[in-house]
UniProtKB/TrEMBL annotation:
Coiled coil: none
Family (UniProt): Belongs to the ROK (NagC/XylR) family.
Taxonomy of the source species: Bacteria, Bacillati, Actinomycetota, Actinomycetes, Mycobacteriales
Protein name stated in the entry: Sugar kinase
Alphabetically ordered keywords of this record: Kinase, Transferase
The organism of origin for this protein: Tsukamurella pseudospumae
Superkingdom of source: Bacteria
Entries under Pfam families matching the protein: ROK
An example molecular function term from Gene Ontology annotations: kinase activity
């Protein structure tokens, strides 16, 4: 049994074949850029292209497609409205992927659901019945496993909770949401208002490692905001472990410990006790998570 995993995000769409043990078939990996400036036609071509290219590498039968996408999503309708991809708002993504995959069955969920499901299946949340999975990258997203089952739909949209005491760049017309403050691009934006001259998260990470005061302040501000967001989420839905992934979590070697320190300072003991750990699946987390939508459908609502 092999499944096709497809992950659609704000900067790229990726597809690959994934084996039942979570191994990504290297020869099948394909990706294409997305981005805010892409048209609907551009995005359709990118999505169908990676799906067909990945399937072309199959040496045996492919039983279905696990499709994860940035949200919000409408699972019943099979549509998505990614915050960072306005051209796809209300787009029938499930149908497009099913057609590109030759009519294979498609299990479609929000990317945060896929991420936490993958980490619960094979990653850092393995063995935990209650977990929050998070991505800090171009955007900030998340998903929840509660009582051993993933919460579906848009549950876990942690990037859109409001923060106290922070103001960031505009996201969805607001400047006080976790994503507004703590996403990679928004963190770089804030650093630039403080005199930082770099342009990317990689630039910020290099400056942080060299001890640049503004970079250090920016990374600590981001980590504290993420910790505050986690505290609010865990106060509402208690979990014992929080798994942090996404490219921006690698901006500093101590990013996860900084987030853990912020969570540990929460006044509610059960919130402060939550463990914050790095994602166990590394760069393959989005694809393995998407594959888990097919392999671990027993854990879906």
């Amino acid at each position: 049994m092999t499944v096709l995993a497809v992950d659609l995000g704000g900067t790229k769409v990726a597809a690959a074949l994934v084996e039942p043990d979570g191994t990504v078939v290297e020869a099948s990996r394909h990706r294409a850029p997305t981005g805010e400036q892409a048209s609907t036609a551009d995005l359709e071509a990118a999505i169908t292209g990676v799906v067909r290219d990945a399937l072309a590498a199959a040496e045996g039968p492919v039983t279905g497609v696990g499709l994860a996408a940035a949200g919000p999503v409408d699972e019943a309708a099979g549509t998505t409205s990614p915050i960072n991809l306005e051209a796809l708002h209300g787009f029938p993504l499930r149908d497009l992927v099913a057609d590109a995959a030759g009519g294979l069955p498609v299990e479609f969920r929000r990317d945060g659901v896929a991420i936490v499901l993958g980490e619960h299946w094979l990653g850092a949340a393995r063995g935990y019945d209650d977990a929050l999975g998070m991505v800090v990258s171009t955007g900030v997203g998340g998903g929840l496993v509660v009582g051993g089952k993933a919460l579906g739909g848009n549950a876990g949209h942690i990037g859109q909770i409001e923060l106290s005491g922070y103001t960031g760049s505009v996201s969805l017309g607001r400047t006080t949401m976790l994503e507004s403050v703590a996403s990679g691009p928004h963190t770089v934006d804030w650093a630039r208002t403080q005199g930082f001259t770099g342009a990317t998260g990689e630039d910020l990470g290099a400056a942080y490692r060299s001890g640049d005061e503004v970079a250090v302040a920016a990374v600590r501000r981001c980590a504290t905001a993420v910790g505050q967001g986690i505290g609010s989420a865990v106060a509402l839905v208690p979990v014992s472990i929080v798994v942090l992934g996404g490219g921006f979590t690698r901006v500093a070697d101590d990013f996860v410990p900084l987030v853990q320190a912020a969570v540990a300072a929460h006044p509610l003991p059960y919130v402060a006790a939550a463990r914050v750990v790095p994602a166990g699946l590394g760069g393959d987390a989005p694809l393995v998570g998407a594959a888990a939508l097919m392999y671990r459908r027993d854990l879906l609502p």
